[in-house]
Design goal:
Blueprint (H helix, E strand, L loop, with lengths): L14 E2 L11 H16 L7 E4 L1 E3 L8 H9 L11 E6 H14 L5 E4 L2 E4 L4 H8 L14 E2 L2 H5 L8 H10 L2
Helix pairs in contact: 2-4, 4-6
Amino acid sequence: HISTTSVYGEVVSGHFTETSPLLPSEHVYIHTKQESERLLQEYTPDSDLIILRPGSICAEEQSYWGDRQVERMKEADVITWVHPDDVVPWVHTDNLVEMIVLAATNAHNGDIFNAIDANLPETDFRMKLITASDKPYQIPKRAAEHATFANDRIKQLGYIPIRTPESTIEQLVKSF
């Protein structure tokens, strides 16, 4: 089952492992993802249920956190949605596929994995895109989001990223 790190709730700080509690949320996306996990765990206890919780899935093409961020920035008069102190639980699409294959072949029933490559500071991610955009920038009026997510469990399966944030961001910067 592909879930999301958002199941931990509307968190802005803290460090989350696969055993961290899922905080109740009224946010529809979070609530439905939490409920999906609960229902699968409740009604399929004897199946080969494995849950992966990816963070912000990024790629150079067809990705909200990749090329769609670039397009959104190109269209904006002022970029107002990126806080420079945020931390993003980043995973490349290709790496997520690798994690799925590893989990499907090596994990056990009931295993849960945070599926992220890195807890990436915005200074190493979208702030670079903003600089490349040459657009005016305004810090949003909200608290910075510093939540981080452990990825030790997926690495214990032998996971090694095939795509790096640096190479992906370099390609996204070139698209400006």
